[in-house]
Amino acid sequence: MNQTRPALLLVTASLIPLIILAAVMGRFFIQEQQNALDADIRSKATIMAATLQRELKSQIQLLSVVADSPRLDPPIPRSAFAETARRLRERVPEWEQIRISDEKGEVVLSSPALEGSAEKQVVDVESHRTLVRTGAAVIGNVSIGPRGQAAFAVRVPIERNDKLRAILSVVIRPTIVTNLLYANGLPESWAAWIVDGQDRLVASTGAPALAGNAASEFASFTGTEGLATLKNGLEVRVAEVALGETPWRVRVGLPVAEYDRLARKATLLLAAASCFTLLLSGSAAFLFHREIRARNRERESIANWQRMDALGKLTGQAAHDFNNLLMVFQSGVEGIKRRRNDEQRVTQLLSHMSEGVTRGKAITQRLLSFSRRSNQGAGHVELDIKLPELRPLLRQAIDDTIVMDINVPDDIWPVHVDPAGLENALINFLTNAREAMGGGGQVTISARNVLDGAAEDPTLQGQFVAVTIADTGTGVASEHLGRVFEPFFSTKKNGGPGLGLTQVHSFAKGSGGAVKVASVAGHGSAFTLLLPRSNEQRVAREPARPAVNLPARLLIVDDTPSSLESVRLALEGLVSTIFVATSGSEAIEVLERHPDIEAVISDIMMPGMSGIELAEEIRRKNSRLPVVLMTGYSDKLEAGTEVGCPVVAKPFKIEDLAASLEAAKTSTEQSANVVRLEILAKS
Predict the structure, then answer these.
(1) Nearest to 614 by CA among 645, 588, 648
(2) What distance, in Å, lies between the first and last C-alpha atoms of the chain?
(3) Where are the strands (E) in 133-248, listed by range?
(4) Strand partners, 468
């Protein structure tokens, strides 16, 4: 095969993601620069707001000191006020006027003195009323005085004996605020302005004469969030920060042109990268077309290998998860057998089993989504064992007014069906029977061997087992007998969906059998499932199991909470003291705190320290302590790893566990009798 073309294809294809990555990183870098500009705008607005806040606060503090001065104790002598005001104006040139007003807003004293025809009422009535109402110092809104000049007032209360006596105000020109705007190192191309609580301009860069006018005369917002247009037509991105103790707000604007310049760079970068990427993509497509036939077989082989590898991993994990679930059910069954009258324990065990059903359904969905087809799971089922075991479950499908009998002869043949499908079919039959016997009655489940299926159904051949479910209900009218298995056909008064018998029909056909119905209106119905006989040998019946012998103090280690709790509940009552741990490290800590533990049961597949590693650590620290490992699936065991201690497969019975513990105990006792000889080196 020509090696030049694959190499050229590899180089070309590898350049494409590099160019795309470079373009994306360039775009990201430019976006970061834009974000930095936005952050810079807000930072400068925040700094200006903090500076202005400190300046206004210092003005309030200074004026409050004056208000507390004995020179302003009522009644205030005019000469004393005039002398105090003169000294203050010399010290603080920005204070253009100092006034004292009463609660009604009438100016009582003023420096400079008011002219005879001047208005004696304060100009900013709103801030004056706010101070009278709250008793706290306020910063007034900017106002235009009688002479057409803008100013704002700072007001503090004059209180004596906790009672408001008068209001001390100072009128300040906005020049002091304008100077603060320029003192914060604002770039020349940027704009900044300050507005009061009525959105009137207090100060601005480049237009100090607009103070006192509406802020829209300096800049108006365009409707797009964060964008405004200045009076000179410049569009800016705006960040606004409010002052903490006054309704004033500081706004800083960055020309949009500076911001968009970065965006244009990013657009050009992406356009250039896109053109180059298209060129390389075309070249790669041309080269790939020349190589596709030669590589097709190899790609399919690799894909099949990957699928088989993924299927193997999925199957192993599913086996482990399902065996964990089966352990939950096995332990639950063992626990319920011993505690039939302990309602609390039975409820707890049933709760674990219910959770196991939910988890099992999720695992099945994962398997189905991988394979895209359903595995019916048909297997060897012995009805004389299966049906009595299902009695409690089937009993739940009917009510207490109905008597249920199960008549299965001992010589009944085993069948080859899906056990879950059989359970669902029986539940569907019993549900229909319950609804047909509203006033109570009797339902009978029976089974018989059929030597030739053709005698029952012409489509069948071979040996079958007929399972009949007969009830004493209302029966089915003769005109409806031919339609009972049709989808959505139903004669129920409650308007049921009519899919139960359809599912039974699908199960019977899928199992290689058939389903029949016979009914007499008013006297009941009989449904018969014809299921194929299993060719496997019957399972030998287990003899009566001897009593188990378990240690008195046992440690259980499992990282699956439900499996751990199920094993604990199954052993509770058989083992006097049970300790639990959810990891190998926790198990080591428990053993150090309780050295009198007699045996350890640990799951193999655990994060961090596996069960095999835990067993090795226990053997190193205490070789006399028996350890039994339990697992549903282990890749290490499948690979032939030697574990050096008994392994019991989930789900296991108590007798199996007891035998494994006994074997582990015997093994540790034998190893303890071995004397290790060490040859000391000669000095």
Answers:
(1) 588
(2) 68
(3) 138-139, 143-144, 150-160, 163-172, 191-195, 201-204, 219-221, 227-230, 235-242
(4) 446, 528
Task: Identify the helix (H) or strand (E) that includes residue 520.
Answer: strand 514-520
Nearest Cα neighbor of 480 from 498, 459, 506 is 498
pLDDT in tens, 440-454: 889 999 999 999 989
573-626 pLDDT per residue, tens: 788 899 999 999 999 999 999 999 999 999 988 888 988 889 999 988 888 899
Q: 509-514, long-range: CB within 8 Å, 24+ apart, which pairs?
A: 510/376, 510/418, 510/421, 511/376, 511/378, 511/416, 511/417, 511/418, 511/421, 512/416, 513/417, 513/453, 513/460, 513/464, 514/453, 514/456, 514/457, 514/459, 514/460
Residue 114 and residue 78: Cα distance in Å, rounded? 13
List alpha helices for 73-221, DSSP H: 78-91, 125-134, 175-182
Q: What is the CA radius of gyration of the chain?
A: 46
* Chain centroid, CA 682 distance in Å: 66
For the record, the structure tokens of 558 come out as: 């499992």
What are the backbone angles phi and psi of residue 485, rounded to the nearest 5°?
-95, 5
8 Å CB contact between 583 and 609? yes
How far is Cα 664 from Cα 220, in angstroms, rounded to an integer?
86
**Cβ-count burial of 457 within 10 angstroms (0-12 exposed, 13-18 middle, 19+ buried)?**
middle
CA 351, CA 345: separation in Å to the nearest integer?
A: 10
Look at the block and give the residue holding tokens 């019977």: 508
* pLDDT confidence tier of residue 188, bands split at 50, 70 and 90: confident
For residues 406 and 600, what is the distance between their CA atoms, to the nearest angstrom?
44
Angle at 425 between CA 421 and CA 427, to 5 degrees: 115
Q: Among residues 232, 285, 211, 250, which one has the least CA distance to residue 54?
A: 250
Closest CA to 599 of 659, 536, 530, 531: 659
Provide the token pair at 231: 């009076």
Dig out the tokens for 166 from the structure: 């008068």
